[in-house]
High-affinity Fe2+/Pb2+ permease (Alkaliphilus hydrothermalis), 110 residues
Amino acid sequence: MTLGFAISTFVGAFIFPFLISMCWGKMVEAWGAIGGWMAAGFIVGTTWALNHGVGFIYQSGALVDQAWAAGVGLLAGAIYSGASLKKSVPTILSSIVGGAIAAFVIAMSG
C-alpha cells in the first residue's frame, strides 16, 4: 500500500464514525425515528459513495471495512470522552455475534 492509499484510507475511515457521532443523534432528536432512517440513508450512503465510489478506502478484500471504521472510531471516541470500556463490552460482543451471523448468511446465499 502506498502512502497516498494509506492516507486516503485513514481519511475515509475517519469520516464515517465522525459523521455518525456528529449527526445521527441530532437527526433522531429533531425528527424522531424517521430521523434515524434518514441518518442511515444519508450518512451511510454518502460515506459509502465516498469510500467505494470515489475510492477513499483502499480495499484489499475485506467486506466490512466501513463496519470496522465505525466500530473502532466510535469506541475510540467514547473512551476519549470518558466513557467506560467495561460498559461497552456487551455491545462489542453483540456486534461480533451479529457480524458472524451476517457473514454466515451471506456465505450461504452466494
Summary: The mean pLDDT is 86. The two ends are 29 Å apart (CA to CA).
